[in-house]
Amino acid sequence: MQGLGSLENKTVIVTGSAQGIGAALVGKIISLGGRAVAVDLNGDKLRETMSPYGDRVLSLAGDVADPDFVAESVEKAVSHFGAVHGLCNNAGITRTAMIEKMSLDQWNQVLNVHLTGAFLWTKAVGIHMIERFKAGDKTPGAIVNHSSVAGLKGSIGQINYSAAKSGQLGMTMATAREFARYGIRCNTVCFGVIETPMTETIRGDKFRDGMLAGIPLGRWAQPDEVTPMICFLLSDDAGYITGQYIAIDGGVHISV
Ligand code: NAD
């Protein structure tokens, strides 16, 4: 499929794609002519979610923060589809507690998935893209890190998640600076409140009104409203954009 944001013949790894934003993103990538490597801890759910896409998707079940799983997955993706042109570090968890009640385990779990996981995939996919650059492909790929307005403003009860999501902004800038010499771009998207299983509690009766009051556009978004920007950043049409972040949040980052 040609046109703005085309992903024709591109293969993109999307972590955390059994549900929510990752699942919607795989659908969008396919609709733009691409193929996806879908990764998730929940193998049964992943296979069920990906079943409509047939051989356009390779599903791999495992933990994004397991170094052996990451290395094997990138190898499998390359041997299955020939190359990997995009990576979306999307897998995420929350472990919510006020600072004085947060356990070290809750802190470590969240940093492990969002930061260690994103680092391992960036490294493994980066090595593959650098090899392709050295073999003559001057635009071997793009990486998008899925952060949050929590990483821009902080979030009450989420010191672990806020730190991890701010950390992804630093990772993006470091990756963009290191990999620019190989033609590899790296950007961040910062979501506000998107209607997925992750946000069920904050969209529920107890928090709903307060959450909506902080969103200038006055509503949360559907996953399909955030995927076009991610695909654009992955595409060659964004060829001069790197080290950038864009909030897809209905204006939350400018609300008081
Ligand atoms: P979700 O909970 O609906 O889906 C996350 C997926 O990641 C799940 O399928 C889960 O199984 C998978 N996952 C979790 N830990 C994993 C691991 N260790 N290894 C492999 N897979 C793992 O979440 P979502 O709302 O779709 O969020 C996607 C991303 O966007 C996350 O990084 C999240 O922090 C970020 N985000 C979401 C929102 C929102 O409003 N939904 C807002 C800001 C940021």
UniProtKB/TrEMBL annotation:
Pfam family, any one: adh_short_C2
Gene Ontology biological process terms in this record: fatty acid elongation
Domain Ketoreductase: 10-200
Source organism of this protein record: Comamonas serinivorans
Identification of the protein by name: 3-oxoacyl-ACP reductase
GO MF, one annotated term: oxidoreductase activity, acting on the CH-OH group of donors, NAD or NADP as acceptor
Coiled-coil parts of chain: none
Family that this chain belongs to: Belongs to the short-chain dehydrogenases/reductases (SDR) family.
Record-linked InterPro entries: KR_dom (IPR057326), NAD(P)-bd_dom_sf (IPR036291), SDR_fam (IPR002347)
Keywords per UniProt: Oxidoreductase
Domain of life: Bacteria
SMART domains: PKS_KR (SM00822)
Keyword match Protein transport: no
Higher taxonomy: Bacteria, Pseudomonadati, Pseudomonadota, Betaproteobacteria, Burkholderiales
